[in-house]
Amino acid sequence: EDTFTLDIDDVVLQLKYGNDEEFKCAISSLNVLIRDSLVTNEWINDEGIVPILFNRLGSSRPNNRLTIIQILRSLASENPENKEKMAEAASLLTLVKSLARDVEEQREAVGLLLSLSDLPAVRRRIGRIQGCIVMLVSILNGDDPVGSHDAGKLLNALSSNTQNALHMAEAGYFKPLVQYLKEGSDMSKILMATALSRMELTDQSRASLGEDGAIEPLVKMFSAGKLEAKLCALSALQNLSSLKENIQRLINSGIVVSLLQLLFSVTSVLMTLREPASAILARIAQSESILVNQDVAQQMLSLLHLSSPVIKYHLLQALNSIAAHPSASKVRRKMKENGAI
């Protein structure tokens, strides 16, 4: 028994001070001791095993790092107190660095972060670590199914913070942002719509947002919201409307009638909305489906003399697109009859 106790003491010494080879032997021994329940949680606590492992994690070789994280996962699952010890900001920062390493290490690191994320302090701290959300989104979109699944669950846990949801959107993961647009508070909806209006989106991002269902809640904000909500919703829709598939979604949402009503409105507070509204109409008019709205061209013609130069420009763009549609012969005839020229 004395010899075994000495061995355990050696394990702790080598964990603290051993070179790479000695450390490798020490973590293998520690793994066996924990697996076979030869050491108690009290011993792990008294010897400071968790801080020692985190201390060595940053400077260890790849294989040793992998074993360290696996041991930490095992300790986290066994005892909530161990989780609390892993929740320190410095420990989480070290662990997040493993998200940028090879697939196996990534997988283990995401798994450990996920198991720690039931602590509010951990969720708060992880979200603040620079680059963490970007790496998690990258793992979510990666080829490792286990890592991707765990990254998705962790991102979901982190998205309870609106700032994190915005960082996710900036990294190309839009589902949490869309969820806020659908179900968030009025302030959250305005925050998300404003962010969307300012983002430099690729067509791929616009497609993702359309597929994830961003357009319907934005149209709802425009139709039913107060002035600030209307303005940021329109600006966001303007940013999304340059993609053909999203134009069809806008038409399906029934927004054309609301946009025309707005352009006819003489309410002074709504004047700021007219330019983005006319710009969206010009985009929508590129689709032949706009012709399902009867008299749309006639209404636009009658708006021309009421409008500012910028709005006139957008309306003329829209009329040009409508008149050019192959199936618009009736519309063209009607425009001539009503003195369009």
From TrEMBL:
ARM repeat coordinates: 213-255
Gene3D superfamilies hit by this protein: Leucine-rich Repeat Variant
Keywords from the UniProt entry: Repeat
Stored SUPFAM superfamilies: ARM repeat
PROSITE patterns with a match to the protein in the record: ARM_REPEAT
Coiled coil: none
The protein's name: Uncharacterized protein
Lineage: Eukaryota, Viridiplantae, Streptophyta, Embryophyta, Tracheophyta
